[in-house]
Amino acid sequence: MIRLRPVVEADLPLLEMQDDPGAAGEFAWYHFRDPGSRRRQFEAHAMIGDDRGLLAIDVDGRFVGEVSWVRMQNGPPPHGFCWNLGIWIVPDERGNGYGSQAQRLGAAYLFETTYLERVEAGTESGNAAEQRALEKAGFTREGVLRKACFRGGEWRDMVVYSKLRGEP
């Protein structure tokens, strides 16, 4: 059974795999991070805050990845905010359908615990697997942001998806 839960100390070595270009995956590695930054964040009890957060994806007691979110401003304040949802799956666990389930759970969690009306997610235009996962999770494709992401020495197009409160 898949569920989202707070990160525990035993998850940290797998979370830190994201700092390894080979383990992060083609669409998930952007640059090196400060070594130990996840551990410091965990020790400071800062994995979940008012405007961002990170939960572990747990399948039958196994850490298989993480769902994270950050508050974004798309419109004028004070009501122009939404959540931007991201996901990362451990390399050996990819391709099992956990991503779409976790994104559905992540959006549900944000709608249950906050007042914001919109959860959005973006992925590079070449990441067909993530686009399928978002659609399976009930997100609607909205369009393409041209040259919106810099990775691997070049600008890349991003596809934007959203889910609104009350949508399945």
Could you characterize the architecture of this molecule?
This protein has 168 residues and is of the alpha+beta class. It has one domain (2-119): Aminopeptidase (3-Layer(aba) Sandwich). Helix content is 24%, strand content 38%. It is built from five helices and seven strands; from the N terminus they run βαααβββαβαββ. A seven-stranded mixed sheet has the order 1-2-3-4-5-7-6, covered by helices on one side. β6 and β7 form a beta hairpin. α4 (98-113) packs across α5 (128-136). The mean pLDDT is 94.
Short summary:
The chain is 24% helix and 38% strand. It contains five helices and seven strands.
SSE topology sketch:
Blueprint (H helix, E strand, L loop, with lengths): L1 E4 L6 H4 L5 H4 L12 H7 L8 E8 L2 E12 L7 E9 L8 H16 L4 E7 L3 H9 L3 E12 L2 E11 L4
Helix pairs in contact: 4-5
